[in-house]
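Hi R.,

Here's the chain you asked about this morning:
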Amino acid sequence: MVADALIYHPSVSHYLKFVATTVGRDKVLRTLQYFSRFLAWYLYRTNRPASTIAPFEATKKTFGATRKLMRVGKFVEHFRAAAVASDAKSMDPVVRFTAIGRQLGYAFYMLCDNACVLDATAIRKSSFAPRLLREGYRAWFAGISFSIASGLYSYYHLMQRAKTLTSSSSDPEKVVETKKLQKEINAVKVQLLSDVCDITIPSSALGWVELDDGIVGLAGTTSSLLGVWGQWRKTA
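And the predicted structure, written out as tokens:
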């Protein structure tokens, strides 16, 4: 009876829905990858022996390679999303432009990333891989920049709308609209925080800012946990 209660518990069903999604699995692996990156840096800075650091370095590299394999072909999804945004003529021009830029940035990043899979997995080394990886980081930085611009623009307009509404109003429609608006504002805030964390990764890899593995690892872990939380809510 106890076993049946556990097996058929709603939380178990929710978990199965979550791990059944590629995004869910990727976000979990990403969290472990970047947290391992932070731990490896921390242990090195505290003069721990190489034998203690090695498992976390291996985790970082292995999960990184695994995620690359999981992303093979994903650039098609982003190119299609860019095309859909381009065709959405009724969309706010700024939101539409930034959506196209974001999706194209992610698409070219994924394309370069996919081209480096054989090199990253040591199946076949390529002298072009470092350059492709660098171009991929540039595209990723551009995509995140468009996402941040879109987030700031959306946040500004949502706050302007919020000023015209009062939650204390006796009008039921306004109360419902206020609650809905607050959810949208919170979603934009979470996405902005995630983007700000993520942009440290390509900017650091390109050498545009001086950030050690500790900061990048924590930033990547934070954005990954936000991604896990978001995907968990979607599969509820």
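Residues 1-70+211-236 form one domain.

Let me know if you need anything else.
M.
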